[in-house]
Amino acid sequence: MATFAGTPTLNDQRGDMRHRDNSMIRSETYSRPAQLATEDVPKPALSSIISVHDFEDVARQSFSEKAFAFYSSAATDLVSHNADLMCQRKLLLRPKVLRNVKDVTTKRSILGSDSSAPFFFSPAAMATLAHEEGELAVARACGNEGIIQMVSSNASYPLADIVHAGKPGQPFFLQLYVNSDRSKTEDLLLSAEKLGIKAILLTVDAPVPGKREADERIAAGNVSAAISGAVATNDKRGGGLGRGMGKYIDSTLCWEDLAWIKRVSGLPLVLKGIQTASDARKAVKFGAEGILLSNHGGRSLDTTQPAMMTLLELHKCAPEVFAHLEVYVDGGFTRGTDILKAIALGATAVGIGRPWLYALTYGQEGVEHLCDILKDELIISMKLSGITDVDEAHPGMVNTAGLEPLVRDGEDHPWIRWQPKARL
Ligand SMILES: Cc1cc2nc3c(=O)[nH]c(=O)nc-3n(C[C@H](O)[C@H](O)[C@H](O)COP(=O)(O)O)c2cc1C
């Protein structure tokens, strides 16, 4: 076990960390098709669910094996996914006592849209695998809870249906994968603007899908995404839904294309998947209004660093970016304390991914319950830390020493001077 005094590593804090996923070579595929949401499976009463982890346990039992593999899986050896979770535990809170903490507010403005708490739902594909009402149920829950839903380009329902399921004026962001047929992306952007979408969240860390073996090992079944029109199929590499549905993504996309997306949509642009301080600087230069620091929940390039480390890297190497755009983080956020630490370290808001998919096994009510759990944990954490408003959270509240030796302080390697002949 690492000690807090010793040189930290990210993967040694819990004995049960998986060094690869639990999937194994099997010749058969499953009889329960991936498309089937699992209304029929008995579940514990929602009132007995008191943490994000409880939702995951129920989802593991109640989803089809394919759905759970798709949602829970991460790339190759799960290093980044485990690191996301570990990272939160390396950051320690430093509470102040004897303050009047009776009344607390968790409200935040996220790119000008009101949110009842400093978290939002990160985009995730194919919510009907969890519940037949999928993203519609999430939209209703977000409307009731005052939370922003980031709708995936690979959502199960059409964008208009999702927006109309919400309340009038309810804020939504649209996550974008640019289609190799760019006219399709232009059509989507124009419809997003007409539907009152508040911002475009362009995913930049997945020009190709990551290799998620648990997902690959189970046949894809008949799954298609409504917004992108993508259909997943099986081939010699496996049955990965993520890979199958990502085939339309334009891997030629580059910085110069951002102006086109901004011009066509007329909407603020957030880049999702920024992982270095130098790319954060570029995001400012190319006119992004926000960046979501993310390693895609460990699902894209394995062994990338967690967003919280990138957040620290930004403070160290490119502190000026915080003055120019909003900074969000996601990956491995399961507790109110995790959210509080990110806000204290300068994030405007935190993205929640897998937990909302797991909560969706209970439909709209489950997603509302998840919001309540996270808000409740955040409020308790704020009160126990001695603050009453999220705007009061500041870096001094967090002991970051457990991560500091791992945070890079520049673009170049600190001491290797060798350079390749060609360098971008
Ligand atoms: C099942 C699943 C599907 C996802 N689909 C998308 C997607 O369509 N677009 C995208 O940008 N990110 C996608 N993500 C990544 C999430 O937006 C987010 O970055 C990640 O889930 C955060 O990590 P967490 O699950 O540990 O909270 C997906 C994640 C999961 C788990």
Q: Give the count of structural domains.
A: 1
Ligand species: flavin mononucleotide
Distance between the termini: 39 Å
Number of helices: 14
Estimate the strand proportion.
Answer: 5-15%
Radius of gyration: 21 Å
Low-confidence stretches: 1-16
Class in CATH?
A: Alpha Beta
Structural class: alpha/beta
Name of the CATH homologous superfamily: Aldolase class I
Give the rounded overall mean pLDDT.
Answer: 92
Please tell me the CATH architecture by its name.
Alpha-Beta Barrel
Helix and strand succession? HHHEEEEHEHEHEHEEHHEHEHEHEHHE
* Spatial ordering of strands, largest sheet: 4-13-12-11-10-7-6-5
What is the secondary structure topology, with strand pairs?
Layout: H1 52-62, H2 65-72, H3 79-90, E1 92-93, E2 108-110, E3 113-115, E4 119-121, H4 134-145, E5 149-151, H5 159-165, E6 172-176, H6 182-194, E7 199-203, H7 213-216, E8 223-224, E9 231-232, H8 241-245, H9 258-265, E10 269-274, H10 277-285, E11 290-293, H11 307-317, E12 326-330, H12 336-344, E13 349-352, H13 354-359, H14 363-385, E14 398-399
Parallel strand pairs: 4-13, 5-6, 6-7, 7-10, 10-11, 11-12, 12-13
Antiparallel strand pairs: 1-14, 2-3, 8-9
Helix pairs in contact: 4-5, 4-14, 12-14
Flavin mononucleotide is lined by residues 70-71, 84, 122-125, 152-154, 175, 203, 272, 294, 296-297, 299, 330-333, 351-354, 357.
